[in-house]
Amino acid sequence: MNKFIIKSILLFFIVIAPLQALQQLSPTKNITFYTENYPPANYLVNDKLKGISVETLKALWKHLDIAEQEILVVPWARGYRFTLDKANSALFTVSRTQAREGLFKWVGPIFHSTHVLMAKKSKNFEFANLGQIFYRKVATVAGDISEISLNQVGFPSSNLAKVSSLKQAFLMMQSDRVDMIVISIHGFAHLAEQLGFDETDYEQVWQVNKVGNYFAFNINTANDVIALYQKAFDDIAPQRLAIKATYVLPQAEY
Fold it and tell me: CATH code for 3-111+213-253?
């Protein structure tokens, strides 16, 4: 084999190997993102998806100079299951809990949520301890952090009304089919705006927890892809703050 051929072969591997590695690290490989209708993180207005997490994700894509990926709005339980099972998938917005820690790979936190129990003021509820609440009926979104949070504090499943959306949960409370709903503080404010009810007719009767919200990627997503997304997330910190400011989040939930 002459020296020219040998040099050509060596040059081929010197050039191709890094290119292949770059392709493997690249986040441009199609990732399907799943989300739900849950303001202010992600929600539909006139069939257009918006929200803190949606705008943050699009800012990440722009910073990474990649094309926008597919976002599918589905019921929470379905998106959660798909992201667990399907490669090249991600779910948002996901509260990062101890139970979920090893199930996904995480990028964030986007913002924080304080989950509370909300009830009609006219009910005049006053609870001295959590155990007193266990006798009340609470509506929660099935499989959502709200349900998980109540399960973690020992709330009896027999008194949970599990529904597929916040709107359903609220309507159940409004019609007195349940006593309370569990929801984030900012989520309730946006629900009031969306449904047009008077927020002052309701009150927080118990704080359940406070958690960080993230983009959750399928566990088999390459670590290098997660690192690229997280670095981009950190790099656009000023832009992320500006996005959150437009949604008037309580300062404690930044």
Answer: 3.40.190.10
